[in-house]
């Protein structure tokens, strides 16, 4: 018998968080809404590439609500196995009963199943993803010998961050080539400004200053950073300012200190901050 499923890896959302118009608010970058809609209509799985905090999760939440599908999100980690996704037998009150994992539930419900950072998951997960991601659209359940056909509306969506790629953690061509791929980056300035304004509740002038800062920091290139400033960090800085924190303190906490633990690098970033805002 296996241990209970890791509850931390999974969340079920129908349409959260609702925006005024009823959909999670999403500012489009470049035609991804139409692409996703057509992929769903054609029953094709989608692979979303992009750096952390660039809007991948919000995009999937928006599309699930827009297409009227439930959304089941799984944050993949290096211990996540095929059984975590598919399900397992558990003992309850002396009886053994089968418990669907999040992927099996999505397949039965015709939900959108979003596997965030799929390259982190254990390699045995490809065995269950391949037959779901191609024309077969079935989920093999090894433990019960079942082959579960995907309900209409089911869609497999995976994401990964190419910046974190290494040889051990990359998608095999046989996996990649089952997906329609779409690449998101940080949005262009006017879109990012609208996102910061909307998400942080700040005025246009402050949103523009934060976006200018992001562009200056991104121009620095790697600069000993694993990853540069994301839209998410700009939103966080904006929220702190909207709550009453001075801009300098907000930027230090939400951006500079979030990007590095190294004092010299933090000082170098601080100089850019001084020069731009
Ligand atoms: P990722 O999944 O790529 O790490 P998220 O989707 O969680 O990033 O985005 C982080 C935050 O940034 C969101 O909660 C949202 O506030 C904001 N955001 C980023 N891009 C967009 C966008 N295009 N439209 C609306 N909000 C966005």
From TrEMBL:
Q: Lipid metabolism: is it a keyword of this entry?
A: no
Q: Where is the ATPase dynein-related AAA domain?
A: 45-179
The family database entries (Gene3D superfamilies) matched by this protein are listed as:
P-loop containing nucleotide triphosphate hydrolases (3.40.50.300)
What Pfam families does the record point to? AAA_5, CbbQ_C
* UniProt GO molecular function: ATP binding; ATP hydrolysis activity
Keyword hit for Nucleotide-binding: yes
Keywords assigned: ATP-binding, Nucleotide-binding
What the entry lists under InterPro entries is as follows: ATPase_dyneun-rel_AAA, CbbQ/NirQ/NorQ/GpvN, CbbQ_C, P-loop_NTPase
Q: Domain CbbQ/NirQ/NorQ C-terminal, which positions? A: 192-276
- Family named by the database record: Belongs to the CbbQ/NirQ/NorQ/GpvN family.
PANTHER family per the UniProt record, alphabetical: DENITRIFICATION REGULATORY PROTEIN NIRQ (PTHR42759:SF7), MOXR FAMILY PROTEIN (PTHR42759)
Q: What is this protein called?
A: CbbQ/NirQ/NorQ/GpvN family protein
């Amino acid at each position: 018998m296996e241990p209970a499923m890791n509850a931390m890896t999974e969340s079920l959302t129908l349409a959260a968080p609702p925006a005024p118009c009823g959909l999670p608010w999403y500012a489009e970058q470049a035609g991804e809404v139409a692409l996703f809609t057509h992929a769903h209509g054609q029953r094709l799985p989608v692979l979303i590439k992009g750096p952390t905090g660039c809007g991948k999760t919000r995009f999937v939440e928006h599309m699930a609500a827009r297409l009227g599908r439930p959304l089941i999100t799984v944050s993949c980690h290096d211990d996540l196995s095929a059984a975590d996704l598919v399900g397992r037998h558990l003992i309850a009150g002396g009886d053994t009963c089968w418990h669907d994992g999040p992927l099996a539930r999505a397949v039965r419900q015709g939900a959108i199943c979003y596997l965030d950072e799929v390259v982190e998951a254990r390699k045995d997960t490809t065995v269950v993803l391949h037959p779901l991601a191609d024309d077969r659209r079935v989920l093999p359940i090894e433990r019960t010998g079942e082959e579960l056909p995907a309900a209409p509306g089911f869609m497999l969506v995976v994401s990964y961050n190419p910046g974190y790629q290494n040889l051990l953690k990359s998608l095999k061509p046989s996996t990649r080539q089952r997906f329609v791929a779409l690449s998101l980056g940080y949005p262009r300035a006017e879109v990012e400004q609208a996102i910061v304004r909307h998400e942080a509740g700040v005025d246009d002038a402050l949103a523009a200053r934060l976006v200018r800062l992001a562009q200056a920091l991104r121009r620095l290139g790697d600069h000993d950073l694993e990853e540069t400033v994301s839209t998410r960090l700009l939103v966080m800085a904006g929220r702190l300012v909207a709550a009453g924190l001075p801009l300098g303190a907000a930027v230090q906490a939400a951006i500079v200190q979030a990007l590095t633990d190294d004092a010299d690098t933090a000082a170098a970033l601080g100089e850019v901050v001084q020069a731009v805002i």
